[in-house]
Specification:
493 residues; alpha/beta; Rossmann fold; ten-stranded mixed sheet; two-stranded antiparallel ribbon; globular; disordered N terminus; signal; Carboxypeptidase C (Cathepsin A); protease
């Protein structure tokens, strides 16, 4: 009996010790700190709030806890006219760390001028942050960053899908704006990559279900947004990106290589629309002579051999392009930023082994945020900060976010959209982003409220020092343009 008693006591002690050391998820928390930075030569005092805010179910019980970081300029007391920017990244299982620590926030990574990681790891002041003109909140969706599900009985489908993601995040944003007293503020959504799917749907959901109206949506490196284009059009639309990348790597013929990129791309875009797309749509009915002529021009603009263009029936997939362009040099190029080079175990094959751009970025971001959260934001937790979190299976059915964005714009005369694309981004290429804009506004009547800007960098164009300056300034100008004069009615003349 004594042995049984001791065994039971040991089990109780072990269980008690485990209970005392398990990781704790704070459903609601908040840590505030004050700071100062210099933006465009002017000192900007601000308050940083790192914390968690719950997502509730229909019975009012918390289902999940979302981590956020909120920056407010403290020398401006009137929030009525102070813009609020709500920032998301993509994935869909990606945290908000990317734009937070490398683009619009008050601090940025220690990286070199082209975006490559340097040591020691950490952050430095961002003299280009948009905090001078807007307050910013960075939001980590469920299972990204420090955000977690807190009710194990809640189905994962509540969070992990195009439309469920939009629905719960709209509820969360509504709560945040209400708690912070920002209903009167001009409001903006910014999303990168899959975050563009998220914010395109969110602006429609917040407008339609919460009656919250926005001044602007900023889409950085946008996805397809559920806009129908078919495999032929989407693949053909890659050619301008191929041309830009080949020009960067000096892989074009001399007549093109000697020109500036801005002179080449309009020519390639016209060819893509007027000749390539009609040709690939014809498929097997395309006459042999016409097929040969199209392949000749495709090879000229892409830096690829005409033979492989014909072997792919004029529809060269991106995976093959990344492997093929510099194959004769034994190098591959990056998916998310094709300026980056890598090399594979073998030179054969039809796709690279890895994306050299993404591996370089992960190298820089993860250590920096863990240091910044603990030492600067003073946010302490034993949770792992998930750069990429477990969000699968992700329900991608019934996506209409691009069309929903167009509807929201037609219903709200004050709503503006700006698209920012990296010319060397092969994951969400710039010409398909332009195609999005044409379909969001098929009438052409909202052209003065939709703009596109390209940068000579990749998916995260702000990692390049030159583009960090211009892209933030473009956001400032967008905010200024989309401001509404007092007393101006929301109507069409």
């Amino acid at each position: 009996m004594r042995k049984i008693y001791l065994s039971i006591m040991m089990m109780v002690c072990v269980s008690f010790a485990w209970a005392q050391t398990e990781r704790h998820i704070e459903v609601e928390s908040k840590v505030e700190s004050t700071h100062e930075t210099t933006i465009k030569g002017k000192k900007i005092p601000y308050k940083a709030t790192a914390g968690t805010q719950p997502v509730w179910n229909e019975e009012g019980m918390p289902m999940a806890s979302l981590f956020y970081t909120y920056y407010e300029r403290t020398d401006i007391s009137n929030k009525t006219t102070r813009p609020l920017v709500i920032s998301f990244n993509g994935g869909p299982g990606s945290a908000s760390i990317w734009m937070h620590l490398a683009y619009t926030g008050p601090v940025i990574l220690n990286i070199d001028d082209e975006g490559y990681p340097v040591q020691p790891y950490g952050t430095k002041s961002n003299p280009n942050s948009i905090l001078d003109v807007a307050d910013i909140v960075y939001v980590d969706p469920v299972n990204t960053g420090y955000s977690r599900i807190v009710d194990p009985e809640t189905p994962r489908s509540t969070f992990f899908g195009i439309n469920s993601d939009i629905k719960y995040l709209a509820d969360w944003v509504n709560t945040f704006v209400t708690r912070q007293g920002r209903w009167a503020s001009p409001k903006y959504l910014i999303g990168e990559s899959y975050g563009t799917t998220r914010v395109a749907g969110l602006v429609a959901q917040l407008q339609g279900a919460h009656w919250m109206y926005f001044n602007g949506v900023i889409m950085v490196s946008p996805t397809d947004l559920g806009i129908d284009r078919g495999s032929q059009i989407k693949t053909a639309n890659y050619l301008p990106y191929y041309a830009a990348t080949a020009w960067y790597h000096k892989a074009l013929d001399a007549d093109l290589q000697s020109k500036d990129l801005d002179d080449i791309l309009p020519e390639v875009e016209v060819f893509t629309i007027n000749e390539l797309i009609p040709a690939v749509v014809k498929g097997g009915s395309l006459p042999a002579s016409e097929r040969d002529a199209i392949a000749t021009k495709f090879a000229h603009y892409s830096g690829l051999d005409k033979k492989v263009v014909l072997e792919h029936n004029l529809m060269v997939p991106t995976n093959f392009f990344w492997k093929e362009l510099l194959r004769d040099q034994g190098m591959t190029i990056g998916r998310l930023d094709s300026r980056y080079k890598g090399f594979d175990q073998a030179g054969t094959g039809s796709r690279p082994d890895f994306d050299p751009a993404l591996t370089a970025w992960n190298h820089a971001f993860a250590p920096a945020f863990n240091i910044y959260a603990k030492e600067t934001l003073k946010y302490n937790t034993d949770l792992t900060y998930n750069l990429f979190g477990p969000v699968h299976p992700w329900d991608r059915s019934n996506e209409n976010t691009g069309y929903d964005l167009g509807t929201a714009m037609r219903q709200n005369p004050f709503l503006h959209v700006m698209v920012q694309s990296g010319l060397y981004d092969g994951g969400t290429d710039f010409f398909n982003a332009k195609y999005n804009m044409w379909q969001i506004d098929p009438t052409g009547r909202m052209a003065d409220r939709i703009s596109w800007i390209g940068y000579r960098s990749g998916h995260m164009m702000y990692l390049r020092a030159e583009d960090l300056v211009t892209s933030n300034e473009d956001i400032r100008q967008f905010i200024e343009k989309s401001k509404v004069a007092p007393g101006m009615p929301a109507k069409y003349d």
